[in-house]
Amino acid sequence: MGISERKTRERGERERRIVVAARTIAERDGWASVTIRRLAEEIEYSQPVIYSHFENRDQIVGAVALEGFGELAAMLRAAIRPSSTSKERVEDVAAAYLDFAFARPAMYEAMFILPTGLRFARSDTPAQLRDGFGAMATVIAPFSKDVDTATETFWAALHGLAELERHGRIRPAFRAQRITLIMQMVSGQL
Amino acid sequence: MGISERKTRERGERERRIVVAARTIAERDGWASVTIRRLAEEIEYSQPVIYSHFENRDQIVGAVALEGFGELAAMLRAAIRPSSTSKERVEDVAAAYLDFAFARPAMYEAMFILPTGLRFARSDTPAQLRDGFGAMATVIAPFSKDVDTATETFWAALHGLAELERHGRIRPAFRAQRITLIMQMVSGQL
DNA sequence: TACGTAATCTAGCGTCGCTAGTTTGTCAAC
DNA sequence: GTTGACAAACTAGCGACGCTAGATTACGTA
């Protein structure tokens, strides 16, 4: 009988609609506007139905963030062109990272600022969470013996640049120069 | 007549008590526990009194954050020892910055994560907000022609390290190695 | 057709930020 | 000393939040 399969499928589709609604509202009106009541209205079910899909609001943010990590990883990988030099690759990945952060501020917030219940560096950590790191590690590898530490530092530098610029605390006009300095850290020379 | 002076003074003291209470509660129970109701109870006045001192909750967070910027600046300046080499100074300031972030997570959150209504890079920007940057610029200056950009990048790297480690996304055990890499960025050689 | 379970809903609890409207306190003029 | 005006502080409550207990409806199975 395909009945229970249909139910499972419909349930999955409804969950998707919740996540899509959360993301859409967040990107248009900010995360403060993503309320359980509003999501329930959006999917045309009552509020408790939301809680049959997610334990709490944070987990909904987490579901959106997980999508974001997948998309960030894809963007970083896409930025790596085979024809580039090793240095250009690092530069391109850095630029792609910041582009992502500024083009999708709500998504970036879900991924790095808001509580999400996501667990990093564990055995059950989803692939999306590892993949972005992997993309960065790929371009960092040629420059470092301790790739993990170098990648962590590279990532941190990019994250800091994204956050401080997003909050208006460093000058947007000098973004390229700052990336150049990051390059210097990675490559060990200018 | 000293009556109005007394009133002004008492009003100022009450405002201090609000800020101190907010900070104390935040450091003990997190910012979510800092509610207007709780602050009112703490200072033994009704809730509207809080709003005669601050426009809204964000401004209270901002007042605490402002204190934090002053204290961070002081800690960074204290980390600069006259006997150190230029490189050691950068290293000491970096370590002091991260120490601050990890020792006072609630304060760091108020300063860099939460909405505060504070305005940076403006004519009316308070001295505290500029001073931490100044301390970093002091130790960066010997290594760079464009001190502002280099300091921004240094600051961003430290902020990123603090945030990613605070959220458990990079390995605490490798903090020193990451600082070494930041040094490399600053000094242009290992 | 009757039943038991699963799915969904209504209604509401406790809490939040914030504020309208009222009461209380204080000081100056008569 | 009484009265009136203004400032200070209070009570009470609005609308919204996350979340949930308990009632109701829909539906596959016997």
Mind explaining what this structure looks like?
Two copies of one chain form a homodimer. Chain A is mainly α. Chain A contains nine helices and no strands. The first copy, chain A, has helices at 3-29, 36-43, 47-53, 57-79, 86-103, 105-112, 127-140, 147-166, 175-187. The longest helix of chain A is centred in the N-terminal third of the chain and has 27 residues, at 3-29. The first copy, chain A, is elongated. The model of chain A has no long low-confidence stretch (mean pLDDT 93). The interface between A and B is medium-sized, with 34 and 34 residues. The structure holds a DNA duplex (30 and 30 nucleotides).
Structural class of chain A: mainly alpha
- The helix content of chain A, as a percent range, equals over 70%
Proportion in β-strands of chain A: under 5%
Query: What is the rounded distance between the termini of chain A?
Result: 66 Å
Series of secondary-structure elements of chain A, N-terminal to C-terminal: HHHHHHHHH
Rg of chain A, Cα atoms, Å? 19 Å
Tally the beta strands of chain A: 0
Number of helices of chain A: 9
Mean pLDDT of chain A: 93
Which pair of chains forms the biggest interface, and how many residues does each contribute?
Answer: A-B, 34 and 34 residues
> Which shape of chain A, going by the Cα principal axes?
elongated
What is the subunit organization of this protein? Answer: homodimer
Unreliable stretches of chain A (pLDDT < 50, length at least 5) are none
Main sheet summary of chain A: none
